User: Fold this.
Amino acid sequence: MNKVHNILEEVTTGRRMTAEEFRLLFNKADIYDLSRAATTVRDRRFPEGMTTFVIDRNINYTNVCSCKCRFCAFYRDKSAPDAYVIDESLLYQKIEEALRLGATQLMIQGGLNEDLGLVFFEEMFRGIKARYNITIHSLTAPEVAFIARQEGLSLRETLQRLRRAGLDSLPGGGAEILHDEVRSLISPNKIKSREWLDVMRAAHLEGIKSTATMMIGTVENLEHRLYHLNSIRELQDETGGFRAFIVWTYQPGNNELMGDKMSSLEYLRFLALCRLYLDNFDHIQGSWVTQGKQIGELSQFFGADDLGSIMIEENVVRAAGLNYRMKIDEMIRMIKSAGRIPALRDTEYRIIKTYTGGTT
Assistant:
């Protein structure tokens, strides 16, 4: 075990971890040692002792999708009785409600609906920006690639038009596992790994920052996960355009893929290693949405400096049968219970407010 301890000591002092070392640590390292190392690295980067969160609303503009991913319980065929495209009045109603609840960010996402062209998104974003002061952190890489393909435009041209219409940043959804062996099994109709990376590269070159995500616990193995991590680490070296990394666990239920739920211990072990491996990412987000509030709290001891959103609305994970909800006072308590300072942030991770008083 001396080799394990030596690696952890060197990595916590700034040396970049190799893929071989990741494998060794994942299989052999004591989970408490991983926790301490990840916390050390996190606290060196963020010595203020804050854990951040954001208030946003996740609005799904359509549930019609041609991808039909096997892990998804949200999508509908165009002919389904509950298929929809959001109307303008409902969209604005949802945004106004979100603003009343303190939201600073909108995550507008949906399926790959062949009836919705680029003009639909331009008009939607322009309409929002004309009425509200809110960040549009919206459209995943598969959506951007789909729009570009439908319009016969390059990724850069598509992103330029979306940005002029009001798009501020991209969420990292649609990545799942960036390895085509896995994608061919769980989402065969979705863009390939290289295309996801190409969208993010194009966005970063246009000055549109984004997040990077990963969904673990379907059919992938450690080598697939490592390939994913190395791909985004290399792109971050190239562009510096990722603000954060978010890893969550697949939820078996109400979908075609099914399977078993990943253990919380494996999730925490992997989260800590992501903090150590992704040395060029500032923010690592802990997932309470798929792991529950107790593990969300514990994630702060495994390298997480952010707990994402209280999520005024979330439909995709809920469609799989999981419905964790969060209020601001619960988020504040969860962060304080880990001995950290709760801080409300915006999309760019600028601090809006800290909560340093007694237990809320």
